[in-house]
Amino acid sequence: MSEDILSKIVRMRREDIERLGLNFDIEIPEARRVGHTEFLGNAGAILEVKRASPSKGDIAPDLDPVGLATTYAEAHAQAVSVLTEMNFFKGSLRDLIAVADLMERRRKQGLHTCAVLRKDFLLFEDEIDIAYRCGADAVLLIARILDDAQLVKMAERAQKFGIQAFVEVREADDFRKLSVVTAALGDAAAKTIVAGVNSRDLATFHTDPLIPASVRSKLPAKAVFESGILSAADATYARNLGFTGILVGEAVAKNPPLAKDVVSAFESGCENARGQFWKKFAALRQAHQPCVEQQHARRPLVKICGITREEDGLLAAELGADMLGFVFSTTKRLTTEEFVRNFKNRLLLLKEDNSTKATSCQVSYSSTRNDVACHPGADGDRIHSIKGSPLLVGVITDPNSEEGKTAIKLAQEGVLDTVQFHGVDPHDSGNTALPYYCAARVGSPEDFDYVANLRKNGEPRVLLDAKVEGIPGGTGKTIPESLLREKASGLPLWLAGGINPENVATICEKFHPELIDVSSGVEDAPGIKNHKKIRALFAALSKNI
Questions:
Q1: Residue (of 267, 251, 169) closest to 218 by Cα position
Q2: Given a cut of 80, is residue 252 above it in pLDDT?
Q3: pLDDT number for residue 497
């Protein structure tokens, strides 16, 4: 097996330590000569002094650490993260000392002072001593590269010096280690430990902004969203999820004037319904396939859209649909507020019924998430009881129309879990505090400019639908394969347009979408689902796993 990037970094660092010592042959202060600023004492941004990275190569090779840290302080960052790893990030303990000395001068001048984080792949307790003497207020401890005992020893050493241990977690075992070190420190943990979750997989250096969303509830109150923050809108997204801090590297190191906008966006944001939706979706994805990195080893999440009849929605939920879409636009699939409210209540009753009835029945497809029971009703009809209801989506094409306003109201009330802005940008209408995601109609390379703009506006996912002039959706047309191959790279695919039981396996094999959105492909007429086709769709997906 080839060596991944993280393993290579750690191996080379060990070799450097053997050759140069823990100070990397750099003269460091015999004792700490600067004051202390609490790391993330208040919610805010941690901005990075970063010359290079394994994934990007040179980012800002000629940066002046003191000048850049001054820019960060003037932007009122809460902390400055200083990379001291020399092989891949081209950092140095000299940078750490210089930035710490800068903050001490600002402290004496009564200017805004940032805490200083030593960011490195630390392996030994004595490296905590060196960081402290160099002026660090916090040290990064990567749970993935430290065993339980070493992580505890290093956190205890940080606590001894009165500085914070910034513990980075991502995988399941990392969270176990976080619990171990928190328990070991006892009451001191609340003051010593700050947790961070990296949207970047350190083995591959790929980023996914849904990773922090999926684990926010597992982290302590003071937690940091790391990596993948490229704009002020990304900072707002992280704040919407309820993070106390963000760690921003490449974007501000390459473009220092961006620092002020990023800091302001994060500090002016708040946890809201938008963030709650993305946490809910991320948890759904995690439950559906715990190892989200293995995109090719699972079936996609499934949204059945254009529900207008209760029996269609219940069958889709029974068979394992993860999301159900209700159209609030003047098409033949138009639904009503009354129908959606009644359907929501029906799902809640069936979920409650499942907890009190023991009789069960078999269905043709069993989801990894949904358990189904059936019971004879008073009228002899089968009553479905579904555990783990799908997310309910209101699809709108005009937020200012009466239909659009109805969907927004239902989302605000929690009847709908989210709104799908189909072909419209919520940033234009000021609806960004809603639980929502965006869908874009694409039929040419130029249409992907709109997709790119949505992503720059902090959207972690964008649903791609086939573009047919004059028809907002449900056209039965597919997006040209060549266009998807050319333009649809980067974040995992959410795919709509012309998907049906006959082609779904091929589409999944070729493009490995994270989510598919199916409407006309399982219909007899707009809004009228064919139950045999719905069953066939899920059967085809089950064979493709």
A1: 169
A2: yes
A3: 94
Which range is least confidently modeled, 46-50, 216-220, 473-477? 473-477
> For residue 350, is it within any domain?
no
Q: Which are the contacts of 423, defined by CB distance < 8 A and separation ≥ 6?
A: 397, 439, 440, 441, 472
pLDDT at 383: 45
3-class DSSP state for residue 382?
Answer: strand
List, for residues 83-132, the tens digit of each pLDDT value.
Answer: 999 999 999 999 999 999 999 999 999 999 999 999 999 999 999 999 99
Report how far residue 198's alpha carbon sits from residue 318's, in angstroms, rounded to the nearest whole number: 35
Q: Which amino acid is at 463?
A: L
Tell me: do 238 and 300 sit in the same domain. Answer: no
The Cα 495–Cα 517 span in angstroms is: 6
Check which CATH number belongs to the domain holding 169 and give it: 3.20.20.70
Does residue 326 share a domain with residue 252?
no
The whole-angstrom separation of Cα 364 and Cα 32 is 68
Determine contact, residues 521/537, Cβ cutoff 8 Å: yes
Give the sign of the dihedral formed by CA 242, CA 247, CA 253, CA 257.
positive
Distance CA 527, CA 332 (A): 7
382-395 per-residue burial string, b: 16 or more CB within 10 A, e: under 16: ebbbbebbbbbbbb
Which tens digits make up the pLDDT trace of 429-464? 778 889 999 999 999 999 999 999 999 889 999 999
Q: Is 267 exposed, middle or buried (0-12, 13-18, 19+ CB in 10 A)?
A: middle
CB 115 within 8 A of CB 142: no
Residue 160, judged by CB atoms within 10 A of its CB (0-12, 13-18, 19+), counts as middle
First to last CA, the chain: 25
51 and 122 in a common domain: yes
Q: What is the pLDDT of residue 467?
A: 86
For residue range 314-323, what is the model confidence (pLDDT) as tens digits?
Answer: 999 999 999 9
Helix axes 172-185, 148-161, angle to 10 degrees: 50
Residue type, 129: D
- Please answer whether residues 384 and 350 qualify as being in contact, where contact means their C-beta atoms are separated by less than 8 angstroms: yes
pLDDT at 474: 59
The tally of domains found in the chain comes to: 2
Could you tell me which of 435, 381, 390 has the C-alpha nearest to residue 410? Answer: 435
How far apart CA 85 and CA 90 sit, in angstroms, is 6
State how far Cα 307 lies from the chain centre. 28
Q: Could you tell me where the DSSP H helices lie in 289-419?
A: 310-319, 337-356, 402-413
Band (pLDDT 50/70/90 cuts) for residue 387 is low
Crossing angle between the packed helical segments 273-288 and 232-240, to the nearest 10 degrees? 80
Q: Please, what's the b/e burial string for 193-225 (b: 16 or more CB within 10 A of its CB; e: otherwise)?
A: bbbbbbbbbbeebebbbbbbbbbbeebeebbbb
Domain co-membership, 315 together with 422: yes
- Which residue carries 């959105």 as its tokens? 517
